[in-house]
Amino acid sequence: MKKLAVIVLLVLTSTLAGTWLAVQKVLGNDTIVEGVYFGTINLGGKSRQEAARLLATEENKEQERLVTLRLEDRSWQFSKKELGYGWDLQAMLDWAWAQGRGGWPWEEWQARRRLQEQPAEVPLKEKVDLTLARKQLETVAEAVYVKPVDWELTVNAADQVVYIPGKQGSKLDMEAALRQLEPALLERQAKPIQLARVPVEPAVNRETLDNMRIKAIISQFSTTFDPKNVDRAYNVMVAANAVNGVLLAPGQVFSFNKIVGPRSKEAGYRDAPVIINNELVPGVGGGVCQVSTTLYNSVLLAGLEIVERTNHSIPVKYVPVGRDATVTYGGLDFKFRNNRNHWLYLKSQIAGNRLIFKVFGDPAENVNVELIDQITQVIEPKVITVKDPNLPKGQKVVKEEGHRGYRHYTVRIIKDRQGKVLKREVVTKSYYKPKNWVYAVGTGPAAPAAVPAPEL
Questions:
Q1: Which of 164, 219, 232, 238 lies 20 to 30 Å from 246, alpha-carbon distance?
Q2: Which range is the signal sequence, renumbered to this chain (predicted)?
Q3: How confident is the model at residue 17 (pLDDT cuts 50, 70, 90)?
């Protein structure tokens, strides 16, 4: 009896297993269960790959819809795909595949029966990549951007400090646009999105200029030049204009070469005499050193820190010995540091035959500056004679003119307004090499005596 029961149980189990395997075979285990839809699309009986293609087709249709962005009288259109809209296809496929699966065989069978009676709808899972949306909005932002205009400081002809008002700019309100965009993309028929601007304030405003504390002249110096030397006078004007209007922050170092740039014909300079190896020779940009020299003296009188300065090889005529500053582009430079607690403004001016440099700042910090020129050594030139057989014997002519050499100190004494000495310094040292006189003495035949004219 027991043996018979065991046999019956084995046969029953085998039959049920076979039946379930047959059902599985009929229903399909490598496709989505019948009764699963997305909208009107039947996904039942489709493989994952087939279902993925169907869903992707529907996604593409939705992504091709256009969204209109408007700002004032302008508009832009982008596809929903360009703005980062899409579906989470993997999640949707996973949901569709999971219907009618899982649990005991009996439970799966019941779940699949219910799908025949009541089909399941795959839920739409949307997503928006705001990184892509921002990228597209940046093209709009670039098109609508209105650059603000900074306030400017200048000095008029009467040496009054003047403010030129700036203007407020504007830009796309990017964050507001993104906040509107995301919900709009999730609608089937997206309505036009109204964009907005936000103001952009100038980086430099009235308060910025007030804090610079540029109020009036704190030092000035002038030199004279020959306006008849047209090319040299023109070079002076070009270089002076390059420095005019320069602003220096506290602690900032001014470089003449960096501000003025190369002295070339391409930069507008002309040929005029320049000092090279103790000689005046033609060169492009002759006269520029008068600009650096005039500025140097104005800087000295303002009590500013001299960082780099070199004298010419010979003294110049437009300033006392030891008060010149030579420059060569790519070589010698004139540099000074703004050692004040406020900004500085440099103004150059040409009035007739005078070049004037004025330094503007805050007179409240002003000091009294006294400059003392000390020639510590005068070096006399030697006299050299050379024989010249082309000159008559005994005749003597100047072949090269000489000049004295000098060693010089410039002492600067800085005093407060009450006359108390705050600082006494040797601010610069100069050395001018002497140039020897060279005479040619004739060694040739004596000139024939003049024959007196006959008397009539």
A1: 232
A2: none
A3: very low
Given this model, what pLDDT does residue 285 score?
Answer: 81
Name the amino acid, one letter, at 104: W
Question: DSSP readout, 377-409?
Answer: EEEPPPEEEEEEEEEETT-EEEEE--B-EEEEE
Q: Does 314 have pLDDT greater than 90? A: no
Query: 346: helix, coil or strand?
Result: strand
Q: Taking a C-beta distance cutoff of 8 angstroms, is the pair 76, 68 a contact?
A: yes
- What pLDDT, in 10s, does the model give residues 196-215? 999 999 999 999 999 999 99
- CA atoms of 114 and 100, how far apart (whole Å): 9
CATH fold of the domain at 367-446: Resuscitation-promoting factor rpfb fold (2.20.230)
Question: What number of CA atoms fall less than 13 Å from residue 303's CA on the CB side?
Answer: 22
435 secondary structure, DSSP code: B
Is 411 strand, coil or helix? strand
Using CB atoms within 10 Å of the CB of residue 139, give its burial: 0 to 12 exposed, 13 to 18 middle, 19+ buried: exposed
Handedness of CA 413, 416, 422, 428 (dihedral sign): negative
The answer to whether residue 332 scores a pLDDT higher than 80 is yes
Angle between helices 2-27 and 105-117 (to 10 degrees): 40
Q: Please, what sign has the CA dihedral across residues 39, 45, 48, 52?
A: negative
* 102-125 pLDDT per residue, tens: 778 777 777 788 878 788 889 999
∠ CA 293-294-297, rounded to 5° = 85
What are the residues whose beta carbons fall under 8 Å from the beta carbon of 301, sequence distance 6 or more?
219, 220, 221, 369, 371
